[in-house]
């Protein structure tokens, strides 16, 4: 992501998500005592949580640019190419994306600054949707799972600036849900020492077995891992979970019973 002054591909801005990288502002001030940035939640209904939302940063010097480029390379920031666009104008455009309209007509928060989002949805965006997202920018780019990604406009498909909340389609929601699940499973895999593939099986079986909340599914997966269960679950394994609401102790007792069955794991 390294660039030189005068390079036509110079990145003009960087977008950070403080909900995803809570130390980003502290890192920025350590690199540049007087950084140039705008808190996107400022002046919006989310102002009371400004320090947990998106931040648009314009590099001041070499030191903070290097830091921000490392953030992009480390999959913690989005680089924005927007030559000649004032920070106020780009900030105002981004504020229009804080909320989107769901297919059912409701309004939802849209965490567009999370650097994992665009790689998840860019392949299901129509040309005019890409242009609406980018607004005055010429490119959004970043790194996801070690691979560089880029979102660019379709100049053959001009659109009017976004005024109402962007309408999400079912395809967008499916892509976002898949991304959320994969991110969740990756975190559990690291914490529990089980493969993403195995945890995906547990997730699906637990959900179909009546465990609906991600929090409870996480408790169940943790209990299985603690009891040494290594195999995939079958529908019959989750039948006991349908009878009643479960807490952490209940999940541990269930996992203990599974682990004691021959060939199904290692007893605690």
Give an account of the 3D structure.
The radius of gyration is 22 Å and the shape is elongated. Helix 7 crosses helix 8 and helix 8 crosses helix 9. By secondary structure, the protein is α+β, with helices and mostly antiparallel strands. It has helices spanning 24-31, 62-73, 87-95, 117-121, 127-134, 170-192, 196-208, 214-226, 248-260, and strands spanning 13-17, 36-39, 54-58, 78-81, 99-101, 107-109, 139-144, 147-151, 166-167. The protein has two domains: 13-168, no CATH class; 176-260, no CATH class. Residues 1-8 and 264-268 have low confidence and may be disordered. Strand 5 and strand 6 form a beta hairpin.
Low-confidence stretches: 1-8, 264-268
**Helicity, as a percent range:** 25-40%
Task: Report how far the terminal alpha carbons are from each other.
Answer: 48 Å
Strand content: 5-15%
Overall number of domains? 2
The number of helical runs is 9
Query: What does the main sheet amount to?
Result: 6 strands, antiparallel
In one word, what is the shape? elongated
- SSE pattern, N- to C-terminal: EHEEHEHEEHHEEEHHHH
Give the strand order, joined by hyphens, for the main sheet. 2-3-1-4-7-8
Structural class: alpha+beta
The mean pLDDT is 89
Number of strands: 9
Please compute the radius of gyration using only Cα atoms.
Answer: 22 Å
Task: Summarize the structure in short.
This protein is α+β, with helices and mostly antiparallel strands and 268 residues long. The protein is 39% helix and 14% strand. It folds into two domains: 13-168, no CATH class; 176-260, no CATH class.
């Amino acid at each position: 992501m390294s660039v030189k002054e005068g390079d036509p591909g110079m990145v003009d801005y960087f977008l950070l998500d403080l909900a995803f990288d809570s130390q980003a502002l502290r890192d920025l001030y350590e690199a540049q005592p007087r950084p140039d940035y705008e808190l996107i939640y400022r002046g919006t209904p989310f102002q009371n949580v400004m320090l947990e939302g998106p931040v648009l940063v314009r590099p001041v010097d070499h030191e903070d640019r290097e830091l921000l480029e490392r953030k992009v390379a480390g999959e913690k920031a989005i680089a924005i190419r927007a030559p000649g666009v004032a920070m106020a104008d780009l900030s105002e455009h981004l504020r229009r994306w804080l909320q989107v309209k769901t297919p059912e007509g409701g309004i939802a928060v849209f965490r567009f600054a999370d650097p994992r989002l665009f790689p998840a949805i860019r392949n299901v965006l129509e040309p005019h949707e890409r242009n609406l997202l980018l607004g005055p920018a010429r490119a959004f780019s970043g790194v996801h799972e070690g691979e560089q990604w880029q979102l660019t406009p379709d100049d053959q498909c001009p659109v009017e600036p976004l005024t109402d909340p962007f309408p999400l389609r079912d395809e967008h929601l499916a892509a976002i849900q898949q991304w959320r699940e994969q991110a969740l499973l990756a975190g559990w895999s690291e914490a529990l020492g089980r493969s993403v593939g195995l945890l995906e099986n547990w997730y699906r079986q637990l959900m179909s077995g009546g465990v609906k909340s991600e929090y409870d599914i996480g408790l169940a997966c943790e209990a299985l891992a603690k009891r040494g269960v290594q195999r995939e679950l079958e529908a019959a394994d989750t039948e006991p979970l349908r009878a009643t609401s479960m807490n952490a102790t209940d999940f541990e007792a269930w996992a203990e019973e599974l682990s004691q069955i021959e060939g199904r794991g290692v007893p605690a």
